[in-house]
């Protein structure tokens, strides 16, 4: 009778990691990127620089190793909460989960994590939001620039049943009028199903040369007769946005961001 010999646990873990990595890389090579994840890290007091160092020296390259696409990394211009905000892309949710499992089991990541947290954890909380591109997002999500512009993350919350109206206004008018006034359109997202805010949220990014240029562009945009007509026509059956339904955060890229 043949004797069955079980594999050591560490060998099983290694084989599983290699299998998951192979699946993630194969999927990424053969499919478009359709799943996006916006992640916000809340650094503990005095540990933001250490968090940046871990991303700069280890995390970004390990993400790429495990089939994740690093899109862009930011910190808020006024970073009173010690935040790191970044955007990853994957072919789909299954590929995302496989990549993260392989990443967490990677000995290089485990060593980097252990070394960086020898004097305490770097972060207190991680917020993760899954996103899907709208049909009016630009094809080039984050174009390369000669100088790092000012980025802005804007989140709109609509009244019940009004997201389609907001989408139509952006698709048919706002995106074009932004460009007309010197605002660069970046990706526009909806929240994936099953999350708080899905069905009534538009989250998007824009950029301008500076805060002064951004403010001048928005002032001209607001005074544009074409915008005023589009807004009036879109709200004949009621307001699209809830009261105080616009949130805005100015962002700047980190030195290790793929796009500056």
Describe this protein with a few key phrases.
alpha+beta; disordered N terminus; eight-stranded antiparallel β-barrel; 260 residues; single chain; Alpha-Beta Plaits
In words, what does this structure look like?
This protein is α+β, with helices and mostly antiparallel strands and 260 residues long. Strands 1-3-2-8-5-7-6-4 form an 8-stranded antiparallel barrel, surrounded by 4 helices. The longest helix is centred in the first third of the chain and has 22 residues. The radius of gyration is 21 Å and the shape is globular. The N and C termini lie far apart (64 Å).
**Cα gyration radius (Å):** 21 Å
Unreliable runs:
1-30
* Mean of all residue-level pLDDT scores: 91
How many domains, in number, for the residues? 2
Secondary-structure element series: HEHEEHHEEHEEHHE
| Spatial sequence of strands, sheet with the most strands | 1-3-2-8-5-7-6-4
CATH topology of the largest domain: Alpha-Beta Plaits
Q: Assign the structural class, choosing from mainly alpha, mainly beta, alpha/beta, alpha+beta, or little secondary structure.
A: alpha+beta
The percentage of residues in β strands lies in 25-35%
End-to-end Cα distance, whole Å, is: 64 Å
Architecture (CATH level 2) name of the largest domain: 2-Layer Sandwich
Give the count of helical stretches: 7
**Shape, principal axes of CA atoms:** globular
Largest beta-sheet details: 8 strands, antiparallel, barrel
Q: CATH class of the largest domain, anyone?
A: Alpha Beta
- The strand count comes to 8
* Helix-residue proportion: 40-55%
